Amino acid sequence: MLKKIRWYQIVRALMPIAYMLLLIEGVMSKNIIFMGVLMGSTLLGGAWFCGWFCPFGFAQEWIGKLGQLLRIPKIRIPLKAVRWLNLSRYILLGLSMTGLAAVLLLQSPYASFMGVVDRNMSYITQAAWVLMISFLTLSFIIDRPFCRFFCPEGARYGIVSLARLFTITRDETKCISCKKCDKACPSQIQISQHPDVRNAQCINCMECIAACPVKRTLKFGWAFKKYAKMNSPQES
Ligand code: SF4
Ligand code: SF4
């Protein structure tokens, strides 16, 4: 049976293509205003860049979808392992700040892919090509393997997103605990266990909202509603 396609899923599929076209035209390279707006919107509502703009994230996601179409079985990594693996991109981010990982970053599949998009491939080494193609191939069986576990760029947005004012909230009175949201989440976040999503791995893909069978149980909105409710005077 065909799934209902939501408007934001169409917009989310088109945004990275538009972003890549702007990169090719040279409009986006080192655009300070765009970078400022991205950081501001991350602070306000989460890691939009990762889920809505990043060309390498887009490539991994659509290879994953192609895999589903070809009925290639997906691997869901055990949650305990995910918790440890999630740390690696923050370690890489820390290393990159000390300059120790300069060589590693030069081999980064993200940088290589952006080079391909920007038609500037002179700095992509053989090892970088191998890494980039390996991660793209791995995307057939694991959701966004590079984004989730190795991307220092995503780690930066993820950390800033922890302060978000708007997020995905779950109405506990409507939730039937079917866990369809957990299964749909490419970052394997346990949405059904929390009243809202405040997780550095969230990329704002909204797949959890699309998967939820109970209308308006999951919503994107003001993150502090439940605290406001808790602190409001009790009705007698
Ligand atoms: S499915 Fe929901 S919680 Fe998971 S990354 Fe997407 S928006 Fe965030
Ligand atoms: S998909 Fe919706 S109803 Fe099911 S567990 Fe998640 S929030 Fe609750």
Automatic annotation (TrEMBL):
GO terms for cellular component: plasma membrane. This is 4Fe-4S binding protein. SUPFAM superfamilies: 4Fe-4S ferredoxins. Keywords: Cell membrane, Iron, Iron-sulfur, Membrane, Metal-binding, Transmembrane, Transmembrane helix. Residues 166-194, 195-223 form the 4Fe-4S ferredoxin-type domain. InterPro entries: 4Fe4S_Fe-S-bd (IPR017896), 4Fe4S_Fe_S_CS (IPR017900), NosR_regulator (IPR052378). Pfam families: Fer4_10, Fer4_5. GO terms for molecular function: iron-sulfur cluster binding; metal ion binding. It comes from Oceanispirochaeta crateris. Its main location: membrane. The chain crosses the membrane at residues 7-26, 32-58, 90-111, 123-142. It is found in: Cell membrane.
